[in-house]
Amino acid sequence: MAAVFRYILPVEETHWKFQGAGETTFTWNYDTQSEDLLRLYAKGKQQQWDAEKRIDWSIDVDPDDPMQIDETVLPLYGTPLWRKMSERQKSDLRYHAQVHNLSQFLHGEQGALICAARIVQDVPTIESKFYAATQVMDEARHVEVYRRLLTEKFRFVYPISKPLQVLLEQALTDKRWDFTYLGMQVLIEGLALVAFQRIRDYAKNPLCQAVNAYVMQDEARHVAFGRLALREYYPQLTEAERREREEFVIEGSHHLRDRLNSEEMWERIGLEPKEAMRQHDQSEGHARYRKRLFSRIVPTVKDIGLWSERVRKAYADLGVLHYADKDPQEMLDNDARAAEEFDKLMQRR
User: 20 to 30 Å CA-CA from 43: which of 97, 262, 287, 325?
Assistant: First the structure.
């Protein structure tokens, strides 16, 4: 059954269209300027993979707890509301939280597919067009794997969350090509890596682990692409132009922080949304996770040069400034190695 028939909303309410504002840029200069981007393009070609062959889709999942993640990482765990919930409600929360996360991954990957296609169209250098073309294929594959995981192993799909929808629209309606990079390659992909990693490292079901590990291997290259392209471009900007990018990063970071406020999920499992969100926001586990979501974004923002006092203050207010000292490339290299380890694990099954 196609995913469209499993939405919790009527299908006509899931359609989303808006007028984009991109430009089409041809370049007649075929001399490449960045050896780093060419090396990344070579890696992008070499690391293409077939979801039919690399993933063992025959692996079964528990129908009530497909990922098999410990309850200590569930929303509301440890709150007064959690202690009042019945075992049935906790089971429903476990299931719906997994579906909601995977649904946002699915919608975010379609957003990444469209953003990557736009980057091919409007980025000014030939080597960036080369690499972005490999990313288009990556993102199509990611939509394929999350669609298949949800439709074959889960019972329904949630619609895109409002904060993610707003950030995608902002990234795609600005005429300046680098805003698409900022919105997708730095912010959305950076947050997604942490969300994927949580499933890769804490789930006990090997299918759910492997899907996220393999997607992360690709995403690590995508974030590196954004870093390389923007790190070379932003020193050329005026102070006023750089300030516009910093404002976009600050606003986008707040949208991503609010991405976890899934009002429709609380309603679906029979909890009063405002009270559930209040207790969720105040829970110790959620506070740690929300901050950790920025562990990939903050060092990348610093690395590309958008590191004014305004940006540092914004991240200090969010409680995530300490991530600035992390090495973004080291984390991306670890993601690639983890995927290779999953290949070995899957071969032994």
Answer: 325
11 pLDDT more than 60: no
Domain membership of residue 27 (yes or no) is no
Structural domain range at position 267: 87-348
Q: Does the pLDDT value for residue 5 go beyond 60?
A: no
Q: Is residue 116 a contact partner of residue 181, using CB atoms and an 8 Å limit?
A: no
Q: What is the CATH number of the domain that holds 307?
A: 1.10.620.20
Distance between CA 173 and CA 326 in Å, rounded?
32
Q: Is residue 234, in this structure, part of any structural domain at all?
A: yes
Q: Where does residue 70 rank: exposed (0-12), middle (13-18), buried (19+ CB within 10 A)?
A: exposed
User: pTM for the whole thing?
Assistant: 0.90
Going by the DSSP 8-state scheme, the letter that residue 204 receives in this structure is -
Nearest to 334 by CA among 240, 160, 200, 145: 200
- What b/e string do you get for 35-64 counting C-beta neighbours within 10 Å, with b at 16 or more? eebeebbeebeebeeebeebbeeeeebeee
Give the number of other Cβ atoms within 10 Å of residue 31's Cβ.
8
User: Which residue, 130, 110, 107, is CA-closest to 120?
Assistant: 130
Residue identified by tokens 């996360």 is 101
Residue 278 located in a structural domain? yes
Cα–Cα distance, 288 to 270 (Å, whole number): 26
Q: Quickly state the pLDDT bin for 9 (edges 50, 70, 90).
A: low
Q: How many distinct structural domains can be found in the chain?
A: 1
